[in-house]
Amino acid sequence: MKKLVISVVLVNLLAACASQKAPEAAAPAAAPASVAAVTAPVVEKAVVVDPLNDATSILAKRSVYYALDVDAVAAADKPVIAAHGKYLSENPSRKVELAGYADERGSTEYNLALGQRRADGVKKLLELSGAKAAQVSSVSFGEEKPKAAGHDEAAWSQNRRTDLNYAK
Amino acid sequence: MLKVLKMLFLFGLLPAAVAHAEMSIEIVGAGEHQIPVALAPLGGDAKLAVAINEVVVADLQRSGLFRIVDNAGKTPHEPSEVSYPEWQAMGAEALSIGVVEILEDGRISVKLRLLDVLKKSPLLGEVLSAKETQTRQIGHRIADLIYEKLTGDKGVFSTRIAYVNRLGEKYRLVVADSDGYNEQTVLAQNEPIMSPAWSADGSRLAYVSFETGHAVVFVQSVFTKQRTVLADFRGSNSAPTWSPDGKQLAMVLTRDGSSQLYLINADGSAIKRMTFSGAIDTEPCFSPDGQNLLFTSDRGGSAQIYRMPLAGGLEQRVTFGEGTNYSPRYSPDGKSMVLVHRANGQFYIATQDFQSGQMQLVTDGGWHKKPSFAPNGKMILFASEARGRGILASVSSDGRVKQHMFTQTGDAREPMWNPHF
Description:
The complex is a heterodimer.
Chain A: H1 2-26, H2 32-39, H3 43-47, E1 63-65, H4 78-90, E2 96-101, H5 108-128, E3 136-142, H6 153-159, E4 161-166
Helix pairs in contact in A: 4-5
Chain B: H1 2-11, E1 16-19, E2 23-28, E3 35-39, E4 43-44, H2 46-63, E5 66-69, H3 84-89, E6 94-102, E7 108-116, E8 121-130, H4 135-151, E9 160-167, E10 170-177, E11 184-189, E12 193-198, E13 204-209, E14 216-221, E15 227-231, E16 237-242, E17 248-253, E18 260-265, E19 272-273, E20 281-286, E21 292-297, E22 304-309, E23 316-317, E24 324-330, E25 336-343, E26 346-353, E27 359-361, E28 369-373, E29 379-386, E30 389-396, E31 402-407, E32 411-417
Parallel strand pairs in B: 3-5, 3-6, 4-6
Antiparallel strand pairs in B: 1-2, 2-31, 6-7, 7-8, 9-10, 9-32, 10-11, 12-13, 13-14, 14-15, 16-17, 17-18, 18-19, 20-21, 21-22, 22-23, 24-25, 25-26, 26-27, 28-29, 29-30, 30-31
Helix pairs in contact in B: 2-4
């Protein structure tokens, strides 16, 4: 069983590397020098480059934002969550914690519940895209720990979100 | 300086500020039927007399029920020294006199008399004593005695409040006197603290702490500071509130899906799910008779207040009309509730009588959250904002007198009035 898992992981890693080549090849001028400098001397490490670490990948997007009092992921963000779900299904050893937040309007407890519902909504979408339940956990901070400190829509729009925090 | 402030108090037109090292207080407004009361300076230790008088005046003033009559330089300390016609002419209906002294063991002792100026007769006579560091407490007790004698309701000036102080990423759970002074830190940490809730006897606080990375409910003694985990299930554990007999708490868990109400014994045993709405159900509050829960739910599409009988039965919506509503708390007599009403982008503190179903706004619109009644039901403590900071505020239940309390640093949030006298 263990062997099987390991081989699956390896296949996935290879697949991930292969799929990662495409965008790099399509945009050779992006940062070829630095990529070469980092990857070329250490050939073994280059094999395990994780698409999560690719700043140009859709997986680089780790936050989704919401309108006031809304907990459903916006249509525009659904491909992002789907990509993370696919990544998780292809990398079953990876785990992600979803952290839901709300802006400061409403009561602190209502906002805690709203943040939880936002995070749980993302969890369901990840699972629909192939992530296993055990790979995904969700927490809410509600209006606590705001990303933006202001008391206006500019700040509030930053604080209504779910973050995808991958375990290191 | 003090004289100027006193004049502002007397005219009642301008917000008056009492400067202090830890706190500053602003009082706005006045009650409709104020009892004119004169406070003759206490005899004895002059410095103590001034310190105590300041507390008594501020307490009576913020209740909104009293007008402090200037003593015009008269300083009787014994009933035999009181010339009633003079006090009548000054408009006083009651007069307090007395003497403060430092006893041999260092304790402070106050002999206090309250006199009925119209009937020319004594209303009460008491001897109060306290540790030398407790001049404010003695002031609060004098104000409580005067308040109870003249209004018929128990005073709440000696009661305590809890709130959360946030300074950057530092959070402190604080208990303090009802005017915000004399604060003590129950818990200090670098993760958020939310929703402190007093047990009915005032000995314990339940609250939400994020110290382990998610919302967990703790119970802590305010005296021994000993703390235990009450609920630590996956997801959020939050919104604790005590039953009147102290044996149970209601709270919110997301372990089975959405935020739903649960009952749990105070020792953490016997968890029972109470709501099955699939919506957000939160902020439970026991009725004083322990028979019902008020709570916030968005099951109807927006956040509104609902009530459910604990013995089972229909969960009924109790707020209607425009806007959304949050954070219900029963009045001590169980006949009404205080809540947060949000409309047109503004937050109001409101009360609603259960019989009439009528909602009454007791604050102007602004940033007002998390109200709770004083144990006598006559005042409401809530979180507000002024000058870019989170502050504590109180309002008389009729909405006439408001008070802002500025803590020295950071934001004051999530206040809760101790229900215990």
